[in-house]
Structure formats: structure tokens, C-alpha cells
User: What shape does this take?
Amino acid sequence: MSTENNVQNFGRVAVMFGGESAEREVSLNSGTAVLNALLRQGVDAFKFDPAERPLTELLAEKVDRVFIMLHGRGGEDGSMQGALQQLKIPYTGSGVLGSALAMDKIHTKQVWQSLNLPTAKYQIADKSGFEAGSCSAIMRQLGNEVMVKPAREGSSIGMAKVTSAKQLETAIQDAFNYDNQVLLEQYINGPELTVAVLQGKALPSIRMSTPHTFYDYAAKYQDNTTEYFCPSGLSEQQETELAELSVTAFNALSGSGWGRVDVMQDADGNFYLLEANTVPGMTEKSLVPKAAATAGMSFDQLTLAILSTSFDSAGVSEGA
Assistant: This one.
């Protein structure tokens, strides 16, 4: 089909962004970029912010499909996907199960671990039963350098890297402000890489380098000191290995359509899976557009490719 025919087949598209999660500002930036790209290509698209309008207005708007650009809870955790399925409106990306699993870092690791996929050692801190006296033992078990992560937040919100039991206790209490469960993960000393997955295939990997302690919120969105390398500098064999691992890891979580898998590489060249994102950022600093560009795909072409994943929405009738 030609691009013109593809655009006509999409019908009326609601680009859903904003929302009420801690990642609202990032979502607003991502959604605006996507909406502008779709409009440039003649798609009948408009903004829909669920923080400002009830979902039932999608029916009044006679929407044919939704391009989900909500990051974090309420948009990336399966709840919005389930609501859209109830309304029988097709949407982009992963379904209810894949979205819910990938949003929860602890369940993500448990799935990967059950399949013998490589991931760093970890412990879980639960707000209802956390004992500060356990911090010294946790530090020893995880190698004395530990990443602290709220289980269900994105964009590095609430995360910290610690090197002492005292720091660990403080970081866990801070993370409890965002979630009742906190992932405590062995720190892998080496480069961080990410692999975008689009329609079942991996795009070229990206290596991130930042002067920050880790690739935190500021490094991702606020300052210009982060460097991105795509190609990432891996050997051809390593690039193939990482691509296969990333697709396998994404599929293991029932991910579909598009997404991103984050990975660490240790000094010996071994890869360790960190987490998966089912609605990655689409801002000018975002990683998926960078990988797509290296693969020869423009930002506009990428948005159409993602929008086309709405034809595969699980459990949604196209005739609705």
C-alpha cells in the first residue's frame, strides 16, 4: 500500500498524552512530537489528554484508533489498554498483560529469571515489612553497590545508586514515596545500552554515556551532557546477540508492537537485562527515534510504523 492509502486507513486518530502520572511532562513532550508528525503526513489526528477529558468522549469523537503516548501509571501499566478494549477502540503497542508486566520491574525480573535470561541479582523491599537493620546484609549480598528503584515508576524517578547501608536505608525510604515495593538491584559496572523493538525486530543498539552517577532523569531529559552512540560500538557478533536477547526478553513479557529494552554490559562483555518499556519516550532526546534514524527511518516514518501496530490490538474488534 502507498503512504497515502496507509494514512487513509488509519481513520481518525486520538494521540493520547499528558495523563496524571509522575511522567506527565515527558508525556506532553512525546505526545506533541508524535501529533505534529502525524499531522505533517496528513493523518486525521488530534490531542486527547485523559487528565482533562473522560474516555467516553473518544466514542463521541468517533475515534478509529488511539496512539498511546502516556508514560507511567495509568497509561503504560495496562489500565488504559484494558479501558480501550472495553470501548472496542484499537490502540498502539502492547496489550493489558504485556503493559502490566513490563511496568512492574520486580515481576519483569521474575519472568526473565524463570526463563534463565541474564539479569542482575536483586532483593525486594516491601514497605509493610521493611527493617532498616537488614540493609548491611543486603549490601553484602548485592556486592556493595546497589541501585534502588521504585517497582512501578519510569524515567528513573525515585531511583538512586548507593554504596553504604546508611545510603541504602535513606534511598529505600525515599523510594517508598513512589511505591510500596522497591527493587534493590546489584549495580553492573559498565556501559548501559538500549535496544528498540519495532514490529518484532530489533533496531540498532544505542550506548549512553553520562557524567552523572547513573542515567537519571536529568541525564535523560534536562541537560546536554549525555552522549549517545548509535551504532553503539559493539562487534557484529555482540550486536546480533544483544538484538536476539532484547527481542526474546520483550516477547517473554508479552510485549508487542513496539517498545524498548534496557541492558547493562559488564567488563567481560556479558549482558544483563534491566527493564522493558512498552511506551518509550518520543521526544527529541529520546532513544527510539535515534535508533530508527540509524536504521534509515525518519521520525515521521517511525510514527506511522508505530501507529500501524494498532491494527494488532489484542481483543479489539476492527469493526467496532
Remarks:
- The longest strand covers residues 258-265.
- Residues 24-40 form the longest helix (17 residues).
- Residues 101-117+188-299 form a domain with the D-amino Acid Aminotransferase; Chain A, domain 1 fold (CATH 3.30.470.20).
